[in-house]
Amino acid sequence: MNRDDSSSTRRRFLLNTGAAAIATGVMNLPTVHATGTDTLKLGLIGCGGRGSGAVNNALKADPNVKLVAMADVFSDRLEKSAERLKRLAGDRFAVDVNHRFIGFDAYRKLLASDVDVVILATPPHFRPEHLQAVVAAGKHAFVEKPVAVDAVGARSVLESCKAAKQKGLSIVSGLMLRYSLAMNETMKRIQDGAIGRIVTMQANYNIGGLWNVARKPNWSDMEYQLRNWYYYTWLSGDHIVEQHVHGLDLMAWAMQDEYPTKCFSLAGRQSRTGAEFGHIFDHFAVCYEYAGGERCFSFCRQQDGADNDTSHMVFGATGQADLRRNTMTGGRTWRYSAARNGTKDVPYQLEHDALFRSIRRGEPINNGGYMVKTTMMGIMGRLAGYTGKSVTWEQAWNSKEDLRPERYEFGDLPVPQVAIPGSTKLT
Fold first, then answer.
1. What pLDDT, in 10s, does the model give residues 359-379?
2. Domain 8-177+354-366 in this protein, CATH class
3. For the residues 217-242, what does the mean pLDDT come to?
4. Is 293 within 8 Å of 198 (Cβ atoms)?
5. How many CB atoms lie within 10 A of CB 156?
6. How deeply is 87 buried, as exposed, middle or buried, from its count of CB atoms within 10 A (0-12, 13-18, 19+)?
7. Residues 6+ positions from 401 with CB-CB distance below 8 Å
8. What are the angstrom distances between the C-alpha of 181 and each of 63, 184, 210, 337?
9. What is the pTM of this model?
10. 280 vs 15, 224, 230, 302, CA distance in Å?
């Protein structure tokens, strides 16, 4: 490390941090800045649109944050992001040419540089390996959702989050609705019994098709799949994991982070059948069953021309809650009022505000539990959809399915066969 420790502020901080570590029994704390006058150095791993947006939120969260390093597999994507962020951030963009790292090992080079906080925003496949390295390097992290594409990865992330807690590192999840003021108030009322005991829930994420990248003649299989990553299960986890995870997380939150014991699914691929759509499905309908008899009916669809519906409902014994509108009807009628709260409710921003506030105060946040288990809820639904079989939580969590390729290099990479319910096996 090449930090300048000459300032008296820095020395006072290090002394105070050491004393706090001894007093609380928490050792091996990262060397981070606790005062508002010290600069927190930010690194970005994954320079797509979401990564660039997260950097913008991070810079707004704290006036003394600078972006100092960037990493991506592709130089063109990194440079495009750098141009955008330089315009947005001005002199808070401090990424020189020696701190723009390219390639499959770019994240390791970034972590070896002088950064305090890291944003992980690559395709989800890479999240487990990257987070493991981030925690080993002693950095705080913003971890975009979902955090894995298979159970092997989910189990790895959970271990990394446990290690982060021991080190006093903050791990904040990109499941941003957990930081929504309106959603927090709604969930508090649900959990306080405003609609009675939960009986049924419904999570809908039915939309049209998303972006697609046309293949160029000089691209290898690996390059094309990375650039068109959404349509390959090994990279995205399929859309029930990559996108619908937000709705599933709301259901988990309403159930006070109790997760289903089993599920079954009706799913397939009907409208997106071309090679440009890889091998993922375009619709899932999943019934999640809970130990107490509750049911969650989950629907997600990406089909052009069909009706759109992104709604999330919780039905209780005495009323119901509409989580999109933050309203309740039945026994107690209620509607969230932003005017009464007086604070702007922008969850994408609030999650970063919380991350940097936790670092400044030395009060680490660790979202590891729910970000892993909600990701697994999506994976569980995908396994049921792909196989056509009922899948228990234990089967999903203990699955040996490992979607990693044999090697990370540009070259041939066959696309797996589209799953066939009833024929595809659970591993």
1. 999 999 999 999 999 999 999
2. alpha beta
3. 98
4. no
5. 19
6. exposed
7. 150, 151, 152, 383, 427
8. 22, 5, 29, 10
9. 0.91
10. 53, 15, 9, 11
What tokens appear for 407 in the block? 């090697």
Please name the residues in contact with 395: beta carbons below 8 A apart, sequence gap of 6 or more.
Answer: 383, 426
Strand partners, 215: none
Residue pair 350/181 in contact by the 8 Å Cβ criterion: yes
Measure the CA–CA gap between 239 and 226, rounded to whole angstroms.
16
How far apart CA 364 and CA 356 sit, in angstroms, is 10
Among 22, 59, 63, which Cα is nearest to 42's? 59
Residue among 261, 240, 262, 251 at smallest CA distance from 199? 251
For 230-245, write each residue's pLDDT tens digit: 999 999 999 999 999 9
Task: Spell out the residues 6+ positions from residue 346 whose beta carbon is closer than 8 angstroms to its own.
Answer: none
**Per-residue pLDDT, 20:** 33
8-177+354-366 and 178-343+372-397 in the same fold: no
Distance CA 353, CA 203 (A): 28
For residue 128, give the nearest of 423, 418, 403, 313 by alpha carbon: 403
DSSP string of 343-408, one letter each residue: S---HHHHHHHHHHHHHHHT---B-HHHHHHHHHHHHHHHHHHHH-S-EEHHHHHT-------S--
Q: Give the CATH superfamily of 178-343+372-397.
A: Dihydrodipicolinate Reductase; domain 2 (3.30.360.10)
Length of the chain: 427
Alpha-carbon gap, residue 227 to 244, rounded angstroms: 21
Distances (CA, A) of 387 to 156, 268, 379, 415, 419: 24, 10, 12, 18, 7
Please count the other Cβ atoms lying within 10 Å of the Cβ belonging to residue 286: 27
| Confidence at 5, pLDDT banded by 50, 70, 90 | very low
The answer, yes or no, to whether residue 47 has pLDDT greater than 90, is yes
- Parse the chain into domains and list their residue ranges: 8-177+354-366, 178-343+372-397
